[in-house]
């Protein structure tokens, strides 16, 4: 079983590298995915069709897949074709932009969700507000996430996870709510679960050695001043 039920109350790890980074390779991301599963992750969130294809045969946990096109506006699995490609590459759940903004292909969110369901996968809508979540659920999303909290102009960027939005979603929607975004340590993850998160997605704090290393290096530099 690799669907939503398999990640209930569990940790999902986002295995993604940014463009231009040394770890930006399907082979490397697949190895990272294997490593975090050995560490106890019950799900993987990964970006890019080639990464998904490399990861799928190596881990038997829920795979949340997406593609990114650019970095502005609707860029997380922005088109129906992108969503279908993620499902075909082995994603159990396809993550899509769950905002009310216009999509590059001019088609509604419901079209992406319908296509993913037809391909046998589920949909996670990455949202930035309660209105986004309600819109996504009306369009057929199987679960919603706080992924875009603070990045769409509707809410300020919180220092840590947006627990306020998380609690608001939990209280007002009838699908699983997945916490994601600025979860920087185990205490943040626990706070999200205690606030009602169905599952918790952690990325940078686990899988981004450049950022982790910079945290240590900066701390040592400040201490020596």
From TrEMBL:
- Species per Swiss-Prot/TrEMBL record: Kribbella hippodromi
Instruction: Identify the gene encoding this protein.
Output: nanE
| Cleavable signal peptide | none
Concerning PANTHER family, the annotation shows: N-ACETYLMANNOSAMINE-6-PHOSPHATE 2-EPIMERASE-RELATED (PTHR36204)
Q: What does this protein do?
A: Converts N-acetylmannosamine-6-phosphate (ManNAc-6-P) to N-acetylglucosamine-6-phosphate (GlcNAc-6-P).
Please name the SUPFAM superfamilies in this protein's record: Ribulose-phoshate binding barrel
Q: What's the family?
A: Belongs to the NanE family.
**Coiled-coil parts of chain:** none
Catalytic activity, reaction form? an N-acyl-D-glucosamine 6-phosphate = an N-acyl-D-mannosamine 6-phosphate
Q: Enumerate the HAMAP family for this protein.
A: ManNAc6P_epimer
Which keywords does UniProt give here?
A: Carbohydrate metabolism, Isomerase
NCBIfam families noted in UniProt: PRK01130.1
Q: In which pathway does it act?
A: Amino-sugar metabolism; N-acetylneuraminate degradation; D-fructose 6-phosphate from N-acetylneuraminate: step 3/5
Which Enzyme Commission number(s) are on file for it? 5.1.3.9
Q: Which Pfam families match?
A: NanE (PF04131)
Q: What is this protein called?
A: Putative N-acetylmannosamine-6-phosphate 2-epimerase
Keyword Isomerase in record: yes
């Amino acid at each position: 079983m690799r669907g939503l039920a398999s990640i209930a109350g569990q940790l999902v790890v986002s295995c993604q590298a940014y463009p231009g980074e040394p770890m930006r390779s399907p082979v490397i991301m697949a190895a990272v995915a294997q490593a975090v599963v050995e560490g106890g992750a019950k799900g993987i969130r990964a970006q890019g069709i080639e990464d998904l294809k490399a990861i799928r045969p190596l881990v038997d946990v829920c795979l949340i897949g997406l593609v990114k096109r650019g970095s502005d506006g609707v860029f997380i699995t922005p088109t129906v074709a992108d969503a279908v490609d993620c499902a075909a590459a082995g994603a159990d759940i396809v993550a899509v932009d769950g905002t009310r903004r216009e999509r590059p292909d001019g088609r509604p969110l419901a079209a992406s969700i319908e296509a993913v369901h037809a391909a046998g996968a589920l949909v996670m809508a990455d949202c930035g507000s309660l209105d986004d979540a309600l819109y996504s659920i009306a369009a057929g999303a199987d679960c919603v996430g706080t992924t875009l909290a603070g990045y769409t102009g509707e809410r300020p960027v919180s220092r840590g996870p947006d627990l306020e939005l998380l609690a608001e979603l939990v209280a007002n929607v009838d699908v699983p709510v997945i916490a994601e975004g600025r979860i920087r340590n185990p205490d943040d993850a626990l706070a999200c679960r205690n606030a009602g998160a169905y599952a918790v997605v952690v990325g940078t704090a686990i899988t981004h050695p450049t950022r982790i290393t910079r945290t240590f290096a900066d701390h040592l530099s400040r201490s020596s001043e």
